[in-house]
Amino acid sequence: MDEDTPRVELTPAAADLLRTLHGTHGPLMFHQSGGCCDGSAPMCYPEGEFRTGGSDVLLAELEVEGVAEPVTFWMSRSQYEVWSHTRLIIDVVAGRGSGFSLEAPEGLRFLTRSRVVGA
């Protein structure tokens, strides 16, 4: 992947929701595990609430206008191996996601869209 190509980007709707969540919860992070069901969706937590380790890859520190701290985006290493040739686009859609992700009470859910790099 070209070094100038961001691995992860946010849609305007995702950035708006992150501003709202940051106002309520403070610094934020994402983790995408690739597990079954909602585990394959990007999950948003207060920064540091989800424990990362050697089996995770830090893909991005997302700058969000109006949010002082970058929003880190982590992915399980096994999931990263499958998605390594893509740019991840974090979006928001209406619907109920996981009860563990901060946006669940908002009636919205984060969703990962992807684009093959170079396509």
Summarize this, please?
This protein has helices at 12-25, 77-83; strands at 8-10, 28-32, 43-46, 56-62, 71-76, 86-94, 108-116. By secondary structure, it is an alpha/beta fold.
How would you describe this protein?
With 119 residues, the chain is of the alpha/beta class. The chain is 18% helix and 36% strand. It has a 4-stranded mixed sheet. A 3-stranded mixed sheet has the order 1-6-7. The N and C termini lie close together (12 Å). The mean pLDDT is 89.
Supply database-style keywords.
119 residues; alpha/beta; four-stranded mixed beta sheet; three-stranded mixed beta sheet; 2 helices
Tell me roughly what share of residues is in helical segments.
10-25%
Q: Sheet with the most strands? A: 4 strands, mixed
Arithmetic mean pLDDT: 89
Distance between the termini: 12 Å
- Low-confidence parts: none
SS class: alpha/beta
Produce the secondary structure layout.
Blueprint lengths: L7 E3 L1 H14 L2 E5 L10 E4 L9 E7 L8 E6 H7 L2 E9 L13 E9 L3
Parallel strand pairs: 1-6, 2-5
Antiparallel strand pairs: 2-3, 4-5, 6-7
